[in-house]
Amino acid sequence: MGGHVLCMNMFRRLFSTCRIPERPTDRFKRVDPVTIRHITVFCEGRVFVLRVYDADDELLTIGDLEVQLLHILRHSAYLNSLPARKRDADLPQFVGALTALRRDKWTETRQAMVEFDPLNERSLDKIESSLFSLCLESSTPGTPSELARQCAAANAGNRWFDKSFQYLVFANGMVGANMEHANADATVLQSMFRWLGERYLNRNGGYETFIESRHHSLEFLPPPELLRWRLSQEITLNTIPTALTDFQRDGSTLRMIVVRNKTFGKTKLRAVKLFPDIFVQMGIQLAGFRVFGRVVPTYESGHTRMFVEGRTETIRTVTSEVLAWLQMQDQPDADEAEVADKLKRAMSRHKEISLEALSGNGIDRHLLGLHIAAMQKTGSPPPLFTDPSYAKSGGGGNFVLSTSNVSGYPWLWGGFVPMLPHGIGICYGCENDFLSFMITSFDPSDRDQQLPGPPGPRLPRVTAAEFQRALFKAFEDIYALMERNHESLKPVCKM
Q: Which stretches make up the Choline/carnitine acyltransferase domain (predicted)?
């Protein structure tokens, strides 16, 4: 990036990685993927182990995989057709829903499973060591927004949320994924998905699209293994149903909008000396100021992969320069040239703090390290971290607007949920001819008071749709202002 070498260690952790629930903190189970030859396939709440290498240690062709996946679909359909009295007690459905439990409850449940019967530990190991998981879905999402919601907040019984990543394939051919974010960041996952798209989705007639089976029939391939479980009645009758119900209830409050703004793109923005990322961030600030009535703490993710094992740093978009511009932007008697000048200063300052974050000079990860060190040494946080102003500034996971730029992949959508019940999540990409967005929000629920949030009165509740409309209007206003005044401004150059 910009002539700098980036740390590639996160790529090592993409495959054969699983988060394991433990007290006081979870851990990662990582197996060398070079030694692993299987994936796990979830189908109607059952888990199958699918070996993806043949007896000669060659990867199965697409045709071979099709044969094996059809076997899984038919096997699962047969089991569904059996009357309840004839179903094997060792083949319960929806065990994956346990990974949607609160972490302490999942820790307790997993330990109980291991202690109840050694068979459960063997099945857990098959899932945890697998290269990745594939979830076959019977639903048919009709829009990108519905696809996003299905990937994030649906069908918990057919998932294993602790896996590094899961591919989801729906009955109508739509494809999505669900990732465990603690293990890796979007930059490496993007690279993997881009490689897959270029190799397998372009359909250029090369080896990549070869679909014939080398083996021609299942007799040459070992059938996928259906994992068995021996669970206590408490887990089967209470814990799994409760996990499914709670996830469905909580997931139903999530709103996700996937949308493109085709009015703006990199080409058009640079013509008036605007850097696309900064344009979007200023638009987010103007939209937030209008819908919330004030500036709110905002998180923009910046990577620190110029450093060994670097992950992310927070770019705190709200600055004094941003506030000075926002306070003047909508004043009817404001001098337009002065408003444009203040906007330019806000954009320049955003560039500065972005470079500070990318070069390891941000403050949030430093504060995180101090917080962890204090907790390990004394068991309690220093006063800084309990001061109301810390939460008010976004500290402790209290950012009202959570944002991330995933530009460079026109066909790829990604997103995340807000940090707070009343917050907004904004994942965006800046392409040549359009800006893409996934915007998320939560509906009000009984759980709001149990979730984190800064002290003081709650902000107005804003839906993803309302924020999207305010955001697109903000883009129009910023662009019009800069188009009329860009000759007098220095370029906001690219980082």
A: 6-447
Q: Half-sphere exposure of 198 toward its Cβ, with a 13 Å CA cutoff?
A: 8
Question: Is the CA virtual torsion 148, 149, 150, 155 positive or negative?
Answer: positive
pLDDT at 120: 98
Residues 130-149 as b/e (b if ≥16 CB within 10 A, e otherwise) read bbbbbbbbebebeebbbbbb
Using the structure block, give the residue that is written with the tokens 């090369």: 206
Per the document, the length of the chain is: 495
Catalytic machinery residues: 181
What is the 3 state secondary structure string of the chain? CCCCCCCCHHHHCCCCEEEECCCCCCEEEECCHHHCCEEEEEECCEEEEEECECCCCCECCHHHHHHHHHHHHHHHHHHHHCCHHHCCCCCCCCHHHHHHCCHHHHHHHHHHHHHHCHHHHHHHHHHHHCCCEEEECCCCCCCHHHHHHHHHHCCHHHCCCCECEEEEECCCCCEEEEECCCCCCHHHHHHHHHHHHHHHHCCCCCHHHCCCCCCCCHHHCCCCEECCCCCCHHHHHHHHHHHHHHHHHHHCCEEEEEEEECCCCHHHHHCCCCCHHHHHHHHHHHHHHHHHCCCCCEEEEEECCCCCCCCEEEEECCCHHHHHHHHHHCCCCCCHHHHHHHHHHHHHHHHHHHHHHHCCCCCHHHHHHHHHHHHHHHCCCCHHHHCHHHHHCCCCCCCCEEEEECCCCCCCCCCCCCCCCCCEEEEEEECCCCEEEEEEEECCCCCHHHCCCCCCCCCCCCCHHHHHHHHHHHHHHHHHHHHHHHHHCCCCCCC
Give CA–CA dist 428/407, Å, rounded.
7
Q: Domains of the chain by range and CATH?
A: 9-251 (3.30.559.70), 254-488 (3.30.559.10)
**Six token digits for residue 485:** 């005044």
- 23-76: per-residue pLDDT in tens? 999 999 999 999 999 999 999 999 999 999 998 899 998 889 999 999 999 999
Torsion of CA 236, 238, 240, 242, to 10 degrees: 170
Q: Reply yes or no: is the peptide bond before residue 24 cis, omega within 30 of 0.
A: yes
Question: CB under 8 Å to 5, separation ≥6 — which residues?
Answer: 306
What is the per-residue pLDDT across 279-320, written as a single tens digit (0 to 9) for each? 999 999 999 999 999 999 999 999 999 999 989 999 999 999
Assess whether pLDDT exceeds 60 at residue 217. Answer: no
For 397-451, the pLDDT digits (tens) are 999 999 999 887 777 788 999 999 999 999 999 999 999 999 999 998 776 655 5
